[in-house]
Amino acid sequence: MRTLTRKGAATRQRILEGAAAHIREHGVANMTLDDVLARTATSKSQLFHYFPAGREELLLAVARFEADRVLEDQRPQLGDLTSWPAWQSWRDKVVDRYRRQGRLCPLNSVMSQLGSRTPGAQAVVTELMHRWQAEIATGVRHMQDAGEIDPGLDPDRAAAALLAGIQGGVLIQMSTGEIDHLEAALDMGIAHLRASKLASP
Amino acid sequence: MRTLTRKGAATRQRILEGAAAHIREHGVANMTLDDVLARTATSKSQLFHYFPAGREELLLAVARFEADRVLEDQRPQLGDLTSWPAWQSWRDKVVDRYRRQGRLCPLNSVMSQLGSRTPGAQAVVTELMHRWQAEIATGVRHMQDAGEIDPGLDPDRAAAALLAGIQGGVLIQMSTGEIDHLEAALDMGIAHLRASKLASP
DNA sequence: GCTACCATGGACTGGCAAGTCCAGTCCGGA
DNA sequence: TCCGGACTGGACTTGCCAGTCCATGGTAGC
Q1: Chain A residue with Cα closest to B127
Q2: Which of the pair, B134 or A112, is modelled with greater confidence?
Q3: Which residue in B141, B182, B196, B133 sits closest to B159, CA to CA?
């Protein structure tokens, strides 16, 4: 796969997106390679041509693909947490994204299938979490500079807590179908940041 | 399976715990029925005798088993959130439990394997979440009665947020190995409850 | 101690799905 | 135009693993 013609790259992409779509609809456990082939009008030799290590490599590629989407879907709000209304609008976007996504989280399901034996899969998620947390922390620092958040607060730790709340809220939504926890976690996290200013000066 | 002799019940239990242990060590995807049989010194006919619907029924039983453990492992602290030191001690117990458990969460992996197509599996998790949240909410109410938390705060919503933080913290620990997020989420949640009193009276 | 039913061992089957192979086609550069 | 390598189709192999079956051994109640 050293050189890819345009046509080859397109085929590879079609397989990748087909697999991602199938997983989003049916979950990873219900995905066979043949499903992907049927959906993308490709053949087994093509799949193994572009993903020589087979299923596992394909799944890893899907994980990367979905991980990228996660942050992209929060743009531009995530990169612009510079006022309380901006935070609120980001909060709404996150809730909306996951409400829409429904009960199947491709990333989570791919992860639990690849499991901990695949170092690559862990790296993908770890990097996603770090990037996400870093962006939130940047937002916290902005607000500290603007005097809207207690400067004594550790931005990374606050971002970590907020991120955990989001992840948990999404996870609970996935298993129970209720979105309340995600909303509560975000609201409480943001409220805590806002309240910190009142308590400190 | 209407009547079970003592011996039969013991065998059933051995199979159940063996499966749970194997899943905790290797994950659900790497569990075959034969693995369980080998580990528990039983035979296939026994497994299907006690779990007629086979793998799926066994997995569901494991899910129930693990769901019960989750709350039991937090006793007695979870049922006694009546002072700030008690909250702290509960917080420590939760962190410790998941630090010990390491990177494989049996419940999460069983869930993502059974997926959303099994209503039973969802019911197990949903009930666990509700019970967990209810116990935290009871703790919040205690503290409100004691005048330690703003009475205007909605206990259920606060509990939901805290629970989301825990779930997310655990999830992140599972994928990245870092326990910081869980700690940060718990600490922030509790700090928020404590701070509410100062802001209100 | 007899009898009905529970408990057990382990061989067997059937199907599914990952991965292999080879024959053939298309494309791009010289 | 021609050649090498990328691309494609699909049949085939292989191994695994859930689930079935039946014969036999144990046990509890009468």
Answers
A1: A176
A2: B134
A3: B133
At a CB cut-off of 8 Å and minimum separation 6, what does B16 contact?
B58, B61, B62, B65
Chain B residues lying within 8 Å of A165, measured CB to CB? 161, 164-165, 168, 185
Whether residue A114 contacts residue A59, with contact meaning beta carbons closer than 8 Å, is answered with yes
Amino acid at B44: K
- Taking all residues of chain B, what is their mean pLDDT, rounded to a whole number? 92
Contact B126 A165 (CB under 8 A): no
Tokens representing B15 are 């199979």
Let me know: does A33 contact A19? Beta carbons within 8 Å: no
Kindly report, residue by residue over B96-136, the tens digit of the pLDDT: 999 998 888 888 888 877 876 788 888 999 999 999 999 99
**B 72-111 near A (Cβ less than 8 A):** 103-104, 108-109, 111
> Is the pLDDT confidence value at B1 over 50?
no
First to last CA, chain A: 60
Looking at strand C, which nucleotides approach a protein CB closer than 7 A? 5-12, 16-23, 27-28
Give the amino acid at A127. E
Note whether B184 contacts A: Cβ–Cβ < 8 A: yes
Entry pTM: 0.92
CA of B23 to C1' of C4 (A): 38
d(CA A96, CA A140) in angstroms, rounded, equals 22
The nucleotides of chain D lying under 7 Å from a protein CB are 5-11, 16-23, 26-28
pLDDT band at A199; cut points 50, 70, 90: low
What is the per-residue pLDDT for B91? 98
At B56, the pLDDT band (50, 70, 90 cuts) reads very high
Asked whether B148 and B197 are in contact (CB, 8 A), the reply is: yes
pLDDT at A155 over 70: yes
> Are A55 and A135 within 8 A, CB to CB?
no
Q: Which of residues 122-141 of A touch B (CB under 8 A)?
A: 122, 125-126, 129
- Radius of gyration for the alpha carbons in chain A, expressed in angstroms and rounded: 20
Q: Cα separation of B164 and B159, whole Å?
A: 8
Provide the pLDDT for residue B199.
Answer: 56
